[in-house]
Amino acid sequence: MPSRMPAPCSDEQVKFLLQLQTLLAQGGFVATYKFALLLALADISVEKGDDSGASMRVSIEAIAEKFVDYYWRQAMPYQGLGAKKAAVLRQNTDRQAAIIRAIEEIRSRCEGSLPRARNDRRTWQSLLAKVKRTIKEQPLLKLQTIGGRQLEFLYANTVVADAIELKPGVAFCLRRYHELIQDLVRGAWVRFVRGLRENQPLLGQTVDLDEFLFGSERADLSVARPVLLDFQEGRCFYCEGVLQSRGEVDHFVPWSLYPVDLGHNFVLAHASCNAAKKDRLAAYEHLHRWCDRNVEQGKELGAAFDEVGFLHDLQASWRVTSWAYGQAAAAGVHVWARGGGSVSLDPRWRGLQGMRL
Ligand SMILES: [Zn+2]
């Protein structure tokens, strides 16, 4: 049973951020694994956690999946502007990081396609097993050691049933400050990779290292189009007008807010409706329809995505959407309504089925 705790107060939230800052400034980093682990815990908190302030169990398997996501594109050869050669960037002060080597091998076997690697069950399971082992041997129990001192503020350093338990308030803070934490960690990761002597010949006058390291792998959205067209009966999700042309696949929760391509987050819309919405969250009426669709047809939609090999996880989609609207509500951000432009978010959104977590 997760412990029932109130959400952390402002003072506790500040303390959490200061501890995280200390960890990044003073923790010993010999590889980039610790950065990946921090990002994984933050992402998993968004996808699986809630705002109750409760503790949260995180399986090593879920962390391993995130590691593969992050390192997949980083295991490609890199050649900075004006650099003399291309090679895979070093991620470790000693020899190349084991996870990078394991992914490199699978990458070449699957011609660089992450979905293909995922669909090959045996390959995928053996890769995850390797990554899990490395996570347990390396960053997991060392992350919170600073100068020989244990600063166990994220989780207790014990693995039970192949999982760790985030302390009360941790998932809350990782969700609330997701963007800030992601920026801090990515910045430190880029500086680490830039600083390694072995990487110097590859960097050249690199300016886009951040984009190379973290520009996520995007799925081929055209695969989702016929599925959505069918479920929406040929109509635009936002205005319900007939889609004369093929329509555009739109991230309901914008990619810029949370870059993950999970099936249930997609809707099909007119190019004009999609362009008007831009990178904003959609207003209450649209969210209402999105919730209804996934309550009523989420399962069938998932089965249809399976048939075309498109990744989905309805539970995670509920969580990510409720997190995104919670962030917007907390920050007082306006949302987009068709015909109405920018409007404030109707507080009734919290009562929608699927948003009550
Ligand atoms: Zn439309």
TrEMBL record:
Residues in HNH nuclease domain copies: 222-275
Organism: Polyangium fumosum
Top-level taxon of the source organism: Bacteria
Pfam families the UniProt entry points to: HNH_4
GO MF annotation terms: endonuclease activity
Keyword terms: Endonuclease, Hydrolase, Nuclease
UniProt protein name: HNH endonuclease
